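Morning!

As promised:
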Amino acid sequence: MNIGAEPPSLDWGVTTDSTSFDVISNLQVGLTQYNGSLQCAPACAERWEVLDGGRRYVFHLRGDVLWSDGRRLKASDFEEAWKRLLDPRTGAQYAYYLYDIENAFAFNTGRIKSGDAVGVKALDDRTLEVRLKRPAAYFIYLTAFCPSYPIRKDVIDRWGDRWTEPEHIVTNGPFLLKDWKHEYKIELAANPLYFEGEPDLKKIKMFMVAEQSTAFALYENDELDYVDNRSFSTPDVERCRSSPQYHNVPLLRNNYIGFNVTRKPFDDRRVRLAFTQAVDRRVFPAILRRNELPAASWIPPQLPGYAPDSGPPYNPERARQLLAAAGYPAGAGFPVVELLYPNREDTRLVVEEIQDQLKRNLNVRIELVAQEWKVYLETLHRDPPPMFRNSWGADYPDPETFMNLFTTYNGNNSTRWSSSVYDRLIEAAEAEQDAGRRADLYRRADRLLCRQEAPIVCTYLSTQNLMVKPWVHGMEFNSLDIQFFKGVTVR
Amino acid sequence: MAWLVLRRALWAIPVLWVVATVTFILVRVVPGGPFDAEKNLPPGIVANIKAKYHLDRPVAEQYLLYLGRLSRGDLGVSYKYANRTVNDILSDAFPVSVQLGAMALAIAVLAGVPLGTVAAVRRGRLLDFACMTLSTVGISVPSFLVGALLIYLLGIWLKALPVALWESPRHMILPALTLSFLPCAYVARLTRASVLEVMQKDWVRTARSKGLSPAVTIVKHVLRNSLVPVVTILGPLTAVLITGSFTVEYIFAVPGMGRFFITAVINRDYDLIMATSLIFALILIVSNTLVDIAYTFLDPKIRLEH
Amino acid sequence: MSSTVEQLSAQQPGGGEPPQPPAGQGLVPATWRRLKRITLSYASFWVIVFMIALSLLSWLGVPLSPYAYDQTTSATLSAPSAAHPMGTDELGRDLLARVIYGSRLSMMIGLTTALIALFFGTIYGAIAGYCGGRVDAILMRGVDVAYALPDLLVMILVGVLVGRGTGGILTALGLISWMGTARLVRAQFLQLKHEEFVEAARSCGQGPLALIFKHLLPNSIGPILVALTFIVPAAIISESTLSFIGLGLSPPACSWGTLASEGWRSLRTHPHLILFPSLFIFLTVLSFNFLGDGLRDALDPRTRLATRR
């Protein structure tokens, strides 16, 4: 297979990107794991209890989970992992995922010096207790997510930064890291000690071919057995759409144009609403040609809280009125605004289309600014331009992963939009135990976000496009875009 | 000749020093730092990392520290690949680039010189036109397109060669061909011009009038005397080819060092940027020296010192 | 990448260029007369004039195509037809309109880069070649240093100082392209300055500036002109490579280079996207090369006979 790029780090306490997670998800297992319908099934934990109205979780670990060096998995491996994630000296970006745990926030932000008060504790070798500061309906999903996987503290202490090299790393998942030729390929081998039994697939070669059309050529020549978007240029998708090897999977990834609401002219809600109503989202699938789903609202249809009318309608007439009301009749006097986007083929097409639509519908000029991915991220974090193109993929199958993004306190909220009403709705939804009422809270927040305040213009939902050779069996695709290889066989 | 080598070696030191200094200044003048893209890092952590790499010291001190390390052959650490030193990275990637570049250089010369000679001999005829049009294709088609065409024709359609990756000598052929396309076209044009020039010399006419066959005249006399300008460009050409090409490595997924000329700059990976320009300068100096030595074999009239 | 092209291109004509007699009054008309006899070069000249005219007309706002280069339509990716002679791109924009618009940026990038490179390169090379000796050695090591500096770093710096628009790209490409011209002019001067007519002028008491501008430079004009015709295509290609690594123009602006670097993946599905921009680049480069060859011959009286046919 092709993973497209060198994973920045295989340390699941530190890394945040999907390339690294692709590898880690096959090396390591956490308390729970996703089953086919994206529900949490037992993994290292054989069962768990939810106590005190959702405030306390007790996980009972299997006794037969072995690390690749033969040592038995202990509950303290989890305690150490989570405390390491929260320790400010680790500098883990995903530390905030555990903020629902008692004292986790205080420890991570340095308000308390010691991790002892953090609400995660190994009661004995096989029992892990987690105390939350308030009920959180989505918490169980986090135990299937890479950053929460256990670590071998002794290994990390011994090798420091180099512990993820193949000669040092110790894992407990279905595969072992066998070889890592940096910037070229990673090889995984079946783990004979894996607690669910050694996988049928003996070896996985993960190449880092950056160019899509090259990777696809490798697939056509049978040098790759499986390719996804990373190896699938749009012309190739078009060519292979009718092949029996082709699969198209809707993803929990929503794409949007954000406004920096602290910058003129987007501090005016009417301007934002004018923009969001002036974008015709129906054209995106025709341009991007990967079966994308046009989206005007932020919660994807697969998740609770979705409602078709949460997003704004396409109404250029109304948009022009709004813009005139904001003081720019027919676009007169409207400044040229910058739209920042990461330099990629698909994003370029999207922003060029939006640039032209806004010019036609509102007579406003947008200047497109492309930046290399890392520079783009830095700009978004430090000083977001008036408009920017971004996307968000779900970390777990719950609306929370999307909706939390635009709360005042979320570090990835580059719009600088802050609404106490919205924040309260999200907090209420997080703590709500009744599924119906919870969905309703998210629905109201979604409507506020997309239709009433519009700090973002939602555009479309991405899809995963794959080709799998006929001799590969047992591939299962999910909307979280994680590929597990333990059940795959090659015949 | 020993004197020439010695003199060039002595010159190399100030040149490398200037390259190091100017690059050092450039990387620090260019906005953006190596840790900018890491979002949400607490300030304390950034301070720790900067202290680890001495980036918290005054620039003058950083410069002296760098020169000190450089003089010991330590090229520093990569900030992007936290657990790898620049020496590690380049010792993996440089041999790959050298293999690829040497192969491309060989193709460029072995194909370019005959092509140019034939064109010159058949000047104004159809063959000349064909050769020159072919070489114009080489100049005017960007290498990513050449690569894509070769992958399609030889890799997918004919299934004659592996389309990409770096596993065996056969895997080198397509990237080397792609890389050689442009230099080959230049060598061909250069050879043509030079052969034309030499063919008008009186002694060539004399040789012909003495009854030597055209083929013998060309190969034994004209070509030898035409190669000086070709050899001249081999200096910079060698440096360019064996330090790798971003485009070719990208298209063919070759783990060479050409990519670092681009990615190191984009990531503001200071030490890696310095290392790539120093290596390029060093190779440039060495290959230019070799070119000067080659002159003496080709044309005894050229003296090494002027 | 771009400096590769430059250093290869600029060195070629320098090789064995013979000295020319002092420029006479009728140099331009005479050259023109000779050029006219070389059919291929003469035709190339007019192709280039056509390309420049195309870019100038689109610059002046003369509508050369019924569509605007940035106008999206619902007819995405249609093959060449009567309505769209070159087809349309992913956003339904008319490719003919884009190729015409692209000609302006490509030609401007090509010509301006060449002029910048020529200006700096000639001054630098002239000083080195005229002074010779130690000055020459030091200046030439300076060229080595300039070659070794990372192009991309220079470009990013220029981008910050000048802005990342067309102006930035022009300056940046010029800044990394002057070294070849410098070497060429230097080699030419080194050779010429011991020629009899230069010695004669010197013995008549002419100063260094007069020598350079009246005698050395006019007699180097042939190779320099030829080099120019090589730098132009090289810059056009360099710009496409820049777009390829994502540092090119800001859309919807486009050049032949960006069109090619965006279209090449569609080679097997929508070949018109890559065919037409490449064809224009090819035609232009071919014309510049043949014109260069022709100019060389036309400027060199010794090869005059050979070209008459």
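The interface with chain C takes residues 212-213, 233-236, 238-239, 283, 286-287, 289, 343, 345, 348-349, 351-353, 355-357, 367-370, 372 of chain A (CB under 8 Å).

Hope this helps with the figure draft.
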